[in-house]
Amino acid sequence: MVKRNQSNVVSVPINIPQFRHDLITWFEKEQRELPWRENQDPYRVWVSEIMLQQTKVETVIPYFHRFIQSFPTLEALASADEQEVLKAWEGLGYYSRVRNLQTAVKEVVADYEAKVPQDAEQFGKLKGVGPYTKGAVLSIAYGQPEPAVDGNVMRVLSRILLIEEDIAKVKTRKIFEEAVRQLISHDNPSAFNQGLMELGALICTPRNPSCLLCPVQEHCIAYDKGIEQTLPIKTKKTKQQMKAYHVLVLEVNDNEYLLEQRPNEGLLAQMWQFPMVEITEVSENLLLPYINEKYQTTGHSIEKLQPVRHVFSHITWELNVVKIKCDQLHDIKQHQKTLSLEEISEYPLPVSHQKVYRQLLE
DNA sequence: AAATCGGGGTG
DNA sequence: CACCCAGATTT
């Protein structure tokens, strides 16, 4: 059991040198071959850590290959076109990650001679670099003994050290960071941190952990007590709300469609989409006059396409998709364009609108 | 401290 | 369906 006083001092009741050795030896032998493990290039490590936030390894691998191919160096990413960068991230989600990454990379070029800073304070100030990413990059690329506490590490250490704090609370991470500072190998911080995460991914899984195969089973307090399945403790979050929209597929001139760019901030910022109207604003039978008024056009045939249901982490979209052939559109705004199907493929679309786009290709 | 921000996989 | 994933930022 981990004890701590008011100042977050943690006493770790296990054989630390033995634990380090067991963990690192296992990691060196059993680690997966992953594209970002080919070398220790700080830029590549950084890109991989951003991609891996809330995202599984298998999902990231193809994106990582393509991203590094398109933007092989920090300078290449810094000088790249923003829309092309967003396009490379299309389908990966949490798009602010890549916009922040490009912002940060530009800072590194401007302020640090295009070298990823080794100073924890400097690196941690960069856009999109939080406590986890800071520790991960500095330990993996530069061998610094900094904690890198993610969901895996909290799960693994909650079991090994029997930490029963609620990991849904932001401040709980600090308890785990303090534990890692005591545990971490100064000879090989990279293998130690990655070993904890790899253990969480391969052995110490959320459900049905493979304790019989665990290289640190003998250090695990929860296993000793037979309560590993009850950890970590995490309170559940509120369930999401639903929003219903009409998606307007406006076709003009045969094979020209109206697309619009979403605002610079908020959900799916700067991604492109077919125009959407909240269903509460206009019912389906009034859609044609609504469009004719709004775009100063004459809409003919409304064709109902396959509706789309799309689940985000905190909202669900119910999309009523309608295709409308209409005359020349007027009143096109700055953030809107009419594009052919081929041109649309070059724009970054969220997955929800890719589902609409795919229907047009059929 | 709680909400926001994506998308896919699992049991 | 709920839960989770190599989290960070904003409110």
TrEMBL record:
GO terms for biological process: base-excision repair; mismatch repair. The keyword Transmembrane does not apply. It catalyses: Hydrolyzes free adenine bases from 7,8-dihydro-8-oxoguanine:adenine mismatched double-stranded DNA, leaving an apurinic site. It holds the Pfam family NUDIX_4. One of its GO terms (molecular function) is 8-oxo-7,8-dihydroguanine DNA N-glycosylase activity. Its EC number is 3.2.2.31. The keyword Iron applies. Binds 1 [4Fe-4S] cluster. SMART domains: ENDO3c, FES. Residues 51-202 form the HhH-GPD domain. Its cofactor is [4Fe-4S] cluster. Keywords: 4Fe-4S, DNA damage, DNA repair, DNA-binding, Glycosidase, Hydrolase, Iron, Iron-sulfur, Metal-binding. It is an enzyme of class 3 (hydrolase). InterPro entries: A/G_AdeGlyc_MutY, DNA_glycosylase, Endonuclease3_FeS-loop_motif, HhH-GPD_domain, HhH_base_excis_C, MIG/MutY, MutY_C, NUDIX_hydrolase-like_dom_sf. Gene3D superfamilies: Helix-hairpin-Helix base-excision DNA repair enzymes (C-terminal), Hypothetical protein, domain 2, Nucleoside Triphosphate Pyrophosphohydrolase. NCBIfam families: mutY. Belongs to the Nth/MutY family. Adenine glycosylase active on G-A mispairs. Base excision repair (BER) glycosylase that initiates repair of A:oxoG to C:G by removing the inappropriately paired adenine base from the DNA backbone, generating an abasic site product. 8-oxoguanine (oxoG) is a genotoxic DNA lesion resulting from oxidation of guanine; this residue is misread by replicative DNA polymerases, that insert adenine instead of cytosine opposite the oxidized damaged base. Shows a powerful dicrimination of A versus C, since it does not cleave cytosine in oxoG:C pairs. This is Adenine DNA glycosylase.
